[in-house]
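Notebook, student rotation project (T.W.).
Task set for the rotation: take a protein with a known small-molecule partner, predict the structure of the complex, and write up what can be learned from the model alone. Partner molecule chosen: glutathione. Sequence and SMILES entered below by T.W., checked by me.
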Amino acid sequence: MKALRWFVGKIILMLNSLFSPRGMQRSETAQQEVDAAVANMQLYQFETCPFCVKVRRHAKRLNIPLATRDAKSSPWDQELLEQGGKRKVPCLRIEDNGQVTWMYESNDIIAYLDERFA
Ligand SMILES: N[C@@H](CCC(=O)N[C@@H](CS)C(=O)NCC(=O)O)C(=O)O
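Predicted structure of the complex:
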């Protein structure tokens, strides 16, 4: 079962890199603003989780440099569990004026990123 999951994960990563989406283009100033806004967000994820791949691909399409944190590794696994509330990925940590929101569900994350950056 573990070997099958490993194998499927590798296939997902291979297809993801073969069919990598194009990033949207912005003016230099607009891109700098986007980059600054995204600096307050981190995506807690597993590399081969299909829902995480979906969100990463969308971030690439939107051309946003979304930082990722491997939720299988310390200390991010504990942080996700203790502060987010559950060990489930993807989860987007959003910091806004000192207030932190933990957003679960790939579709909600994508809708949020679209609202901010599309
Ligand atoms: N409906 C969720 C599904 C996410 C999901 O099932 N993630 C799996 C990894 S692929 C997970 O975190 N499983 C651990 C758990 O549910 O405790 C989404 O679209 O984000």
